[in-house]
Amino acid sequence: MRKPSFKFYPNDFLNSTAAMSNGEVGGYIRLLCYQWMKGALPDNDEKLARLSGLTDPKELAHVREYFTPMSGGTLCNLRLETHRPHSIHTPVNLEGV
Question: What is the DSSP string of 3-57?
Answer without folding.
Answer: -------HHHHHHHTTTS-HHHHHHHHHHHHHHHHHSSEES-HHHHHHHH----H
